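Hi R.,

Here's the input for the 5-O-phosphono-beta-D-ribofuranosylamine complex you asked about:
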Amino acid sequence: MENIKNIAVFVSGSGTNLEAILDAGVPVALVVADRPCRGLEIAKEHGIAAELAERGNFGAGFDREAYTQKIIGLLQTHQIDLVAMAGFMTILSDSIFQAYGGRILNTHPSLLPLFKGDKAVKDALEGGAMETGCTIHIATPDLDAGPILAQAKVPVMPGDTVESLHERIKTEERKLYPKVLKDILSGNLALPA
Ligand code: GRF
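And here is the predicted structure with 5-O-phosphono-beta-D-ribofuranosylamine in place:
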């Protein structure tokens, strides 16, 4: 897509999707984290600009709007045109979608619309699913409900734990997410208008 030049990846944790995106040669202009995490170290190792927008408050007093405005400011400073959330664990306010609507991607560890939310792997396992997977989709104000760009299926195996199943899913995410980003950059995959 010709108008996408600068991609930002948002992380909160181990950052293995970020790592896969970088290893696949996707140009990443900025990494944003909401807490100190391995994702920031990965950015540093790759010489990529990184911003720690530390959330600090995880309680009822969290000012989601002010935090979202801070994130929008960072994106504007770095002239970002596409955001790829990769395990980013803060829900941003609707303002982010006014500023970057249709230009925010997310990866979710289930075959959406099944198992939305932050316990997707546990819910699939406890729900007795025979298969689950991952979904790359456009993020919208409705959590885990935006247009789907790509999915990969993963079997649930006997004796699976949340950890073993999540790792099998993440193995697929680490292939699919870079592919989707590359396809968008090359024009092979059009983002919904
Ligand atoms: C992924 O499974 C993603 O779908 C979920 O968080 C995980 C991030 O893993 N939202 P990592 O930080 O990229 O290793």
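One thing worth noting: The first strand starts at residue 7 and ends at 11.

Cheers,
M.
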